[in-house]
Amino acid sequence: MTALEKEVAALPKHIAVIEKALDSHLRKLEADKAALTANQKDRKQMEVDIQMHQQKISKLRDQMLGAKNNEQYRAFQHEIEFVEKEIRGAEDRILELMSQSEPLEGNVKKAEAALKAEKAQVESEKTAARERTAADQAQLDQLKEERKEITAKLKPATLNAYSRIRKKWNGGVVIAEAVGSRCTACQIVLRPQYMQDLRTGTQLMFCESCGRFLYYNPPVNVEDGTRVAM
Questions:
Q1: I want to staple 213 with a disulfide (CB 3.0 to 4.6 A). Which of 28, 33, 122, 175 is the partner?
Q2: Going by C-beta distance under 8 Å and a sequence separation of 6 or more, which residues neighbour residue 159?
Q3: Which of 161, 201, 149, 209 is nearest to 185 (CA)?
Q4: Residues 28, 21: contact at Cβ < 8 Å?
Q5: Residue 10 and residue 86 in contact, taking contact as beta carbons nearer than 8 Å
Q6: Looking at the 3D structure of the chain, how many domains does it have?
Q7: pTM for this structure?
């Protein structure tokens, strides 16, 4: 029963772990998408800037035709050269952004495909975990009901002793078999007289070392399957 209780308690934690892993992958995908979106936005802005610069150059060339002297002509020419430099800088930036976008697009496509498969796997594990939890809980409920029926038939002193031993060993082994004059739980050798009393089976007995309930099963006669008295 203790093992079932631990498993029922552990399954929600298992679901939380796989959901956390999925969530971290989702956040990574969102970060890659955000980086790709920012990249595309910057490229679009550079293209708009280039278009504006080209329009400005066109106006400057028109104005340059009306220059009244060489000084005005050279001033227009210098301004055009400056704007052309701005255009080249924007074009270089676009090329840089394009080179950065290629791996980002690849990462996003791979992550989306992997995430789709992972989501399916996570949902499958969650379904299996829920089904396992439901089955364990049903078995646990049945065992609790059986335990309730059994404990109702026990003497209060016996039930109190059982509860005390179970608490001492943190829900572990409460009842152990004596085999070869040893307690199978703590492996301590039992006194000859103690073993003799245990073989009679007339009273409840406890291991003198670990305090667990002890019982003795006579060895089986391999010829006819009967217990051999010792």
A1: 175
A2: 151
A3: 209
A4: no
A5: no
A6: 2
A7: 0.44
Q: Is residue 75 part of a domain?
A: yes
Residue range(s) defining the domain that contains residue 192: 158-215
Domain membership of residue 223 (yes or no) is: no
Task: Look at the chain and count its residues.
Answer: 230
Residues facing residue 189 across a β-bridge? 182
Contacts made by residues 174-181, CB under 8 angstroms, sequence distance 24+: 174/212, 174/213, 175/212, 175/213, 175/214, 175/215, 176/207, 176/210, 176/212, 176/213, 176/214, 176/215, 177/214, 177/215, 177/216, 177/217, 178/214, 178/215, 178/216
**224 in a structural domain:** no
Q: Which two tokens stand for residue 214?
A: 């002890």
**pLDDT, tens digit, for every residue of 188-207?**
999 999 999 999 888 889 99
Q: What is the mean pLDDT of residues 68-90?
A: 94
For residues 113 and 83, state if they share a domain: yes
Instruction: Give residue-wise pLDDT tens across range 134-159.
Output: 887 888 788 788 878 887 888 888 88
**Does residue 64 belong to any structural domain of this protein?**
yes
10 Å CB burial of residue 214 (0-12, 13-18, 19+) is: buried
